[in-house]
């Protein structure tokens, strides 16, 4: 069985707020390979820290799968975010306002992902902490 370079997200069973995933985000694609904070090179991390802070809203985040997407306030683009790049104690929910920096994704560095993501305004829904079991 061969794998395409970008895996389509056909469906996600659960998102962090336990709601059904809307059909609108079924077109999102995962970068391949997925670069995590742990596998990112020091030079790439340093470059990301030089980038300006961006703002956006969480479009979706699946704690079980370890990733999600942020909609950029500036461009409207959907930006991939990996679980290892979320700062703070709460699991993000759709609609949370966030600040982040953009980091280029290898091997061609044509696309970017969100890193150093901080939730700056929580939605009114109940948020779960990372260390909670449910």
Automatic annotation (TrEMBL):
Residues 53-119 form the CSD domain. CDD domains: CSP_CDS. Pfam families: CSD. Keywords: Phosphoprotein. It comes from Polyplax serrata (Common mouse louse). It comes from the Eukaryota. One of its GO terms (cellular component) is cytoplasm. GO terms for biological process: regulation of mRNA stability. One of its GO terms (molecular function) is mRNA 3'-UTR binding. This is CSD domain-containing protein.
